[in-house]
Amino acid sequence: LFSYSSETGEWKEEETIGYKPQQVATGQWAEDKDGGVAYYLGGLTSDETTSRLNAVTHDQLVVNGLLTLNFTDMSWRNETVPGDPTIRGLMNYIPIGEREILIMFGGERFSEGRYNSASALNNISEIQIYDISTGKWYTQIATGNPDVPENRILGCSVVMAAPDNSSYNIYMMGGSTTYTSGVGHFLNDMWILSIPSFNWIKVWAGNLSLDSFLIFSISLYCFN
Q1: Pairing of strands 119-121, 108-110
Q2: pTM of the entire structure?
Q3: Which residue stretches of 103-191 are H helix?
Q4: Would you state the pLDDT for residue 145?
Q5: Cα separation of 167 and 126, whole Å?
Q6: How far is Cα 33 from Cα 38, in angstroms, rounded to an integer?
Q7: What values do phi and psi take at 78, rounded to 5?
Q8: Residue 211 neighbours by CB under 8 Å, 6+ apart
Q9: Which of 24, 40, 173, 221 has a CA-to-CA distance to 55 between 20 and 30 Å?
Q10: Cα 77 from Cα 21, distance rounded (Å)
C-alpha cells in the first residue's frame, strides 16, 4: 500500500496490520472521506498477482469479499459477501442519518468464480445495499422514469446530497455493455439514481458517434 503527500510531492510505502489481502483489480470501490475508511468489493486475481494460482494454465479467479481499510490504524479487514462474485461495477458510500451504507449496481458476475467461465451482466435495477453497522446485504429494486439504464460494466459515478441530507442522487455516466462472455457497445449517457425513492432518471443521452469508449475509465465529479 502506498500513500502520496500533496505537501511533499512524495510517495511512500505504508505498513498495514490485520488481514493480508490478495492483489486484485477491477473490483468496486468507495470511500468514507470523513471517517477515513475505504472499501473494496470483489476483484480479479491471477497467477501474476498470487503464487497460489497455476502459472501454466494462467488461472484467473474472481474473488467475493469486501475489504475494508481503516486509515486511522492502517488495518485491513475482510468479509465474505453472499451471491456471485462481481467485477467492474459501481459502488458509492452514503451516510443516511445515523446509518452508513454502500450502494452497488452494475458490473459483471461469474457464477463459477473463474474469469474464463460463463458470465452475465448484473441487472442494473437490482441495487445491492450493504449496511455497514450490521454487516448485512440487501437488494432493492429500482424503477424507471419511465426507463431504466442499460445493464453495463465500468462507467463512473458520484454522489450528491440534498442540502439537508434528506435525499441523495447518484450520477452515473458512461460504461459498456460489452462483457467477457458476450458482445455489446460503449455508452456515453448520464443517469441519476435518486435515493431513497430508488428511481432511475435519464438526464442526458450522448451521441454514440463520439469517442464514448473514453467514458468508462474516468472519474466523475460534482461541484456545488
Answers
A1: antiparallel
A2: 0.86
A3: none
A4: 80
A5: 19
A6: 8
A7: -125, 135
A8: none
A9: 40
A10: 8
Q: What is the pLDDT of residues 205-218, one digit of tens each?
A: 876 554 444 455 55
Which helix (DSSP H) or strand (DSSP E) does residue 28 occupy? strand 28-32
Other Cβ atoms closer than 10 A to 213: 15
Coil, strand, or helix at residue 7? coil
Residue 3 vs residue 143, higher pLDDT: 143
Q: How long a stretch of residues is the chain?
A: 224
Give percent helix, percent strand, percent coil of the chain, each to the nearest 5.
0, 50, 50
Task: Give the helix/strand (H/E) hosting 127.
Answer: strand 126-131
C-alpha cell of residue 210: 463520439
Report yes or no: 209 and 186 within 8 Å, Cβ to Cβ.
Answer: no
How large is the C-alpha radius of gyration of the chain?
A: 18
* The pLDDT of residue 224 is above 50: no
Q: Provide the 3-class DSSP secondary structure of residue 61.
A: strand
- Would strands 17-18 and 75-80 be described as parallel, antiparallel, or unpaired? parallel
List the one residue out of 59, 43, 62 whose CA is nearest residue 51: 59
Q: Are 42 and 28 spatial neighbours (Cβ–Cβ below 8 Å)?
A: yes
Mean pLDDT of 81-85: 90
- How far CA 25 is from CA of 41, 145, 222, in Å, comes to 10, 34, 26
For residue 172, pLDDT over 70 is answered with yes
The pLDDT > 70 percentage for the chain reads: 83
**147 residue type, one letter:** D
